Amino acid sequence: MSDNNTNGSSTPKIILPEVEINLFTPKKPTTATIAENYICTDDSSPNVIRHITIDLSGSGMEGIFRSGQSIGILPPGENEKGKPHKLRLYSVSSPSKGENGQPYLVSTTVKRANEEVDGVFYTGVCSNYLSNLKPGDSLMITGPSGKRFLLPENSEEFNYVFFATGTGVAPFRGMIMELIEAGHQGQIVLVFGCPYRTDLLYREYFEDLDSCHPNVHYLKMTSREDRRENGSKKYVQTAIEDYSELLSPILGANNTLVYLCGMKGMQTGIYEQLAKQGFLDYLNLRGDLEDKDPTEWTWEELKTQVKPSERTFEEVY
Ligand SMILES: Cc1cc2nc3c(=O)[nH]c(=O)nc-3n(C[C@H](O)[C@H](O)[C@H](O)COP(=O)(O)OP(=O)(O)OC[C@H]3O[C@@H](n4cnc5c(N)ncnc54)[C@H](O)[C@@H]3O)c2cc1C
Hints:
With 317 residues, the protein is an alpha/beta fold. The chain has 2 domains: 30-145, Translation factors (Elongation Factor Tu (Ef-tu), domain 3); 155-316, Nucleotide-binding domain of ferredoxin-NADP reductase (FNR) module (Rossmann fold, 3-Layer(aba) Sandwich), CATH 3.40.50. The chain has helices at residues 125-132, 170-181, 203-212, 239-242, 244-252, 266-276, 299-305; strands at 30-39, 49-55, 70-74, 88-91, 105-111, 114-117, 120-123, 138-145, 159-165, 188-194, 216-222, 256-262, 283-285, 306-308, 312-316. The chain is globular.
């Protein structure tokens, strides 16, 4: 089996920071206040997503959230069984120093989870609650949550390929802001997938970075609007082939880390493409897959026997 990791040197040690987790729990939450809440997709997008900033002043969590971690939100009210609504997690989209460099401000990126099933329209409890909050409103929060999906402490030693679908871009907004502020010299690629161009989150920010920083690359994969050269749809995983001139040398370098965040299931297509292109160092293979050519792996094998390696960070929901 061919392995496309070419440069011969070994991967630098990935030193993950020690982070605080679960300072506040559903049984012992704390209170914070909404600072701002605005739409961060195009006005014409039907998939309204909001950028929500929470003021942590007095909560006991000021300056604690790291990009990549999540904040827990406890929506008020009860479920159909008369029990209090359960906690929902939302990725931090601000950098570790806080939104606008303010340690008491933490942001997240929220999509209203509404869907129609067999003609019945369902609305998500917490995402709608959060989306409807106004500046000054208070809310119950928990966290921080998550201790692996983080930038390494020695972040300057790596290149990054970030794959995001929808609100999965949230942690990468914070991480990329942090890398840029630190004057990162390595390569940073954000591959963002969504149905339409109007759904491109924080589009202006990423487009500006792409045009101002030669080492930052923003690849937009809009599945229902743009087409690949062969006429098929563009997805996050097709970027590995579609932009191979850019991505192959980066993925082939031994100091590159891959992060993926967003819709559950997105990882399977990405792992399939990584394997097919020979980037096996990003994967841990179970069972007898090592002896089989990646082009022969079944979808079931991909889903159950291919796991992220130490160089791959995955958060899907
Ligand atoms: C680590 C992590 C990070 C996350 N980060 C983010 C983030 O940054 N941004 C974000 O938007 N989300 C994020 N999520 C998802 C988030 O936690 C919630 O799961 C999401 O907002 C939906 O919660 P809800 O309360 O709105 O919907 P729920 O009330 O939990 O409903 C879930 C879905 O089921 C549908 N539904 C409700 N009732 C029925 C029914 N009877 N039959 C069929 N369908 C029904 C709803 O319309 C909705 O689509 C993250 C999740 C995890 C685990």
